[in-house]
């Protein structure tokens, strides 16, 4: 019995250390988990997870104790449309990205990549959905002249819909923020590109922006060879009322980490509420195992405007635990996405990068010396 008490005492002390130590709190966690990809399983120890949930509840958390280098100013080429700094100016390409302490390094790299590869970088307007609006200062320090707005995403908005699941990692409220873009962004913003925080754009994002959605509300690369059945439980498929939602469509998997969204249509047809309805059903009946992806599949799979696969070369995160590295899918590449449980900044910091992580590194603006300075 004695050794059990010693061991549990040790763990309590370790937990206390993690909760109280400000220097530890500023480290990016070694087990990055948030992902819209189906392979992003829980890898957190309960102690670390506990700390993160606490921190995410606390909107007034202390500013992050790390910093970013300032990016160069990226100028428009000569024949770009003239613009102003007003969000409603029609020349803008609108991009939405989430911002939280855990993924801010990835978000900053994503912004950097989009600016660097655009012909008209001054015509991009960024909309950041943040759990903690203090991160605005960090964004401004990296990009002093960026056109952007930070919106506070209130976790209580989704908390009531999130089922208590063993996989808490997939249930981070900010994962659901993409469902609220139509409500949160300025009404004059009628189209937006949503991007996850674990990707880089290596092509001119205006090409993605100008993709036609036809009559559809959401555009994304589709993967029709993936086995769609496995995204939902037997309970879902065996209930004719539920399963019939896919009756007159040909549903295909799509990754919600890169989407072009028609916010005008989204508002008109009330898709936010439709997605919430499925989340309510999930809370009572467990019709799927994953977090924020399945309700999007329920509403949009089979009704998505197919976008070229070059715009989401996904899965590069691979599996951190097995240490596996993924290769690119065949074909051209406009966007690299480290979905999956491994993140390039974690692997680079631990000197165990995958070969393709070297394509993320040039966009990293993280200032490692800032940790020592604190
Ligand atoms: C798809 O997955 C389901 C559930 O895992 C399985 O029963 C079915 O055989 C699979 N279908 C194909 C074509 O692999």
TrEMBL record:
PANTHER family: GALACTURONOSYLTRANSFERASE-LIKE 7-RELATED, GLYCOSYLTRANSFERASE 8 DOMAIN-CONTAINING PROTEIN. It comes from the Eukaryota. Its EC number is 2.4.1.-. This is Hexosyltransferase. InterPro entries: Glyco_trans_8, Glycosyltrans_8_dom-fam, Nucleotide-diphossugar_trans. GO terms for molecular function: glycosyltransferase activity. Keywords: Glycoprotein, Glycosyltransferase, Membrane, Signal, Signal-anchor, Transferase, Transmembrane, Transmembrane helix. It comes from Zostera marina. Pfam families: Glyco_transf_8 (PF01501). It is a single-pass type II membrane protein. Residues 1-26 form the signal peptide. Belongs to the glycosyltransferase 8 family. It is an enzyme of class 2 (transferase). It is found in: Endomembrane system. GO terms for cellular component: Golgi apparatus. Pathway: Glycan metabolism; pectin biosynthesis. The lineage of its organism: Eukaryota, Viridiplantae, Streptophyta, Embryophyta, Tracheophyta.
């Amino acid at each position: 019995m004695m050794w059990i008490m010693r061991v549990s005492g040790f763990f309590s002390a370790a937990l206390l250390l993690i909760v109280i130590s400000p220097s530890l709190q500023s480290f990016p966690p070694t087990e990055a988990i948030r992902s819209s990809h189906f392979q992003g399983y829980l890898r957190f120890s309960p102690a670390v997870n506990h700390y993160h949930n606490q921190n995410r509840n606390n909107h007034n958390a202390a500013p992050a104790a790390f910093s970013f280098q300032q990016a160069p100013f990226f100028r428009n080429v000569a024949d770009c449309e003239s613009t102003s700094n007003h969000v409603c100016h029609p020349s803008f390409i609108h991009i939405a990205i989430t911002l939280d302490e855990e993924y801010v390094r990835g978000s900053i790299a994503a912004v950097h990549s989009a600016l660097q590869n655009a012909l008209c970088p001054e015509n991009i307007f960024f909309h950041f959905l943040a759990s903690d609006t203090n991160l605005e200062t960090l964004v401004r320090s990296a990009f002093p002249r960026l056109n952007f707005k930070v919106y506070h995403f209130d976790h209580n908005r989704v908390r009531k819909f999130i089922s208590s699941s063993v996989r808490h990692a997939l249930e981070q409220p900010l994962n659901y923020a993409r469902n609220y873009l139509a409500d949160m962004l300025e009404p004059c913003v009628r189209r937006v590109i949503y991007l996850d925080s674990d990707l880089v754009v290596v092509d001119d994002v205006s090409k993605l922006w100008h993709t036609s959605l036809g009559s559809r509300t959401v555009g994304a690369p589709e993967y029709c060879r993936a086995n769609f059945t496995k995204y939902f439980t037997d309970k879902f498929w065996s209930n004719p009322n539920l399963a019939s939602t896919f009756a007159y469509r040909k549903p295909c998997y799509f990754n919600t980490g890169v989407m072009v969204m028609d916010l005008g249509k989204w508002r008109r047809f009330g898709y936010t509420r439709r997605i919430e309805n499925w989340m309510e059903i999930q809370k009572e009946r467990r019709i799927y195992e994953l977090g924020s992806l399945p309700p999007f599949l329920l509403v949009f799979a089979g009704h998505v405007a197919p976008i070229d696969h070059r715009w989401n070369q996904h899965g590069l995160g691979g599996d951190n635990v097995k240490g596996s590295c993924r290769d690119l899918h065949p074909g051209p590449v406009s966007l690299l996405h480290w979905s999956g449980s491994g993140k390039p900044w974690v692997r680079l910091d631990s000197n165990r990068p995958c070969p393709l992580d070297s394509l993320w590194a040039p966009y990293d603006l993280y200032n490692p010396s800032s940790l020592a300075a604190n």
